[in-house]
Amino acid sequence: MEYTKTPYFHVGYARDLSGTDRWIYRALEILPGVLSWGTIIAAVVLSRFTPVVAAIFIIAFDVYWLLKTIYLSAHLRQNFKRMKYHLSLDWQKMLSSLRYEDIVQMVIFPYYKENRDVVEKAILSLTLSKWPSKKIIVVLSGEERAGREAFLLGEELMSKYGGSFMDFLHVTHPKDVAGEMPGKGSNISFAAKKVKEDVLDKKGISYENVLVSAFDIDTIPYPQYFHCLTWHFLTAPDRFRCSFQPVPVYDNNIWDAPALSRVSALSATFWQMIQQERPEKLSTFSSHAVSFKVLEQIGYWQRNMVSEDSRIFWNAYLAYDGDYRVVPISYPVSMDANLAPSFFHTVKNIYKQQRRWSFGVENVPYVIFGFIKNKKIGLLKKIKMSFAQVEGFWSLATNPLIIFFLGWLPIFLGGHDFNATILSYNLPAITRNLMTLAMFGLVLSAVISWKLLPPAPKTVGFWKRVSMILQWVLVPFTLIIFGSLPGLDAQTRLMLGKYLGFWVTPKHRKS
């Protein structure tokens, strides 16, 4: 079954449509922000005028949060066990009973103005992989707007490492292309097309035999990543209706990053681990893999919006009428935690990165609008998928605020009559006790984070090691500053039509 292109297939925002479709899409862009801000405003209004109702809601929500924490912690523990098991397997031996000799790995590295160390280590990591280098096509895709220095770096690295691989292409994505947003999506789409024209078609390599890993420039795959990926590809039912998702572990520079950055990075890893245990809610994120056959059929990554990594899944999901999924491979790839030359710039960069990730809310209108247009996907499936998307972004923006801030509003705004009630007297104790129980999940986070750490450099002292455990007391702070606030920021921008452009996270390593 091949897909049929529709006028909305690669829509970025409401401005790309016209007539009634534009107004429907615009209303859907407004929806997430209205729900999140409506929840916050309702909490304030209820706390002032009906504090009893607000207090009951807060207690009920705290119970819900406790149960959710237990549920998510169980998934985190299970995926950690699964990931450890997958790391222990000999994937090359597992592949020996399958026909994989014709499989070619294509790795696309988009880069901008990163320094030589970051770019070269990414390429060097492929030569250290257990997958034969002569069955890897490397694509180093720069940006014309990055200037001549970036171009010369790419040429130098191609000259140095080109002979190590099946093919090594250094391409430059042109700037100011009509209809494109500067960013990863437009870059890697351009790169994939160049490989199709200059390598695959000329050498007669079947698209069905090419697995494409779209890596960030700081991504370093573990040695058996390609074997693990290939095994999952070859054993997946209907392999051309799947994307494949490793676990991003932000540990390249984890011993150099400050505590706020470490907690933020590890929280992102933990969320991806949890999602791997709930594949029905999993979409592609950051570094991911997909068959070139799928890419060519659906028109590559979108070039006119921010979150191309998750959008490629929804493109395929709608193109194949709901017959598409993400296969979690529960195998890690290493990436960088946020780090800048100063603490202030590190904090600023964490916020900007989280806001860009939160702008994945732009998929909500795309998905719901696509469901309205696509009559072949079942209604129940549409409702479940739409609810999961809306609830996820609503929770991101509101839940930490409700837990750590809004839960106290009935005490402060409820007035004398409410403060004289038994409910008012018990509300702080009930909330505190429930949240204390929920915070035991941090113990599990601390243990797993410690076990995920790479070996410490010899220069790392005792207190730095201790801080790797104690850092989890920062979670209430990071959930609000790097969770709720950038989430609300992103949803507000989408609601107001102030669309966010693609921001490239600067890469910095001390050593």
Descriptive notes:
- This protein is α/β, with parallel strands linked by helices and 511 residues long.
- It has helices at 19-49, 51-88, 91-95, 116-127, 148-161, 184-203, 225-235, 259-276, 292-298, 308-319, 343-358, 363-373, 379-404, 409-413, 415-419, 422-438, 441-452, 462-470, 475-496, and strands at 104-110, 136-143, 167-173, 210-214, 220-221, 242-249, 288-291, 325-334.
- The chain has an eight-stranded mixed beta sheet with strand order 3-2-1-4-7-6-8-5, sandwiched between helices.
- The radius of gyration is 24 Å and the shape is globular.
Task: Return the average pLDDT rounded to an integer.
Answer: 92
Cross-sheet strand order for the largest sheet: 3-2-1-4-7-6-8-5
Unreliable spans = none
Q: What's the number of extended β-strand segments? A: 8
Cα separation of the termini: 50 Å
The backbone outline, from C-alpha atoms, is: globular
Strand content: 5-15%
Features:
19 helices; 8 strands; alpha/beta; 10% strand; eight-stranded mixed β-sheet; 57% helix; 511 residues; single chain
How are the secondary structure elements laid out?
Layout: H1 19-49, H2 51-88, H3 91-95, E1 104-110, H4 116-127, E2 136-143, H5 148-161, E3 167-173, H6 184-203, E4 210-214, E5 220-221, H7 225-235, E6 242-249, H8 259-276, E7 288-291, H9 292-298, H10 308-319, E8 325-334, H11 343-358, H12 363-373, H13 379-404, H14 409-413, H15 415-419, H16 422-438, H17 441-452, H18 462-470, H19 475-496
Parallel strand pairs: 1-2, 1-4, 2-3, 6-8
Antiparallel strand pairs: 4-7, 5-8, 6-7
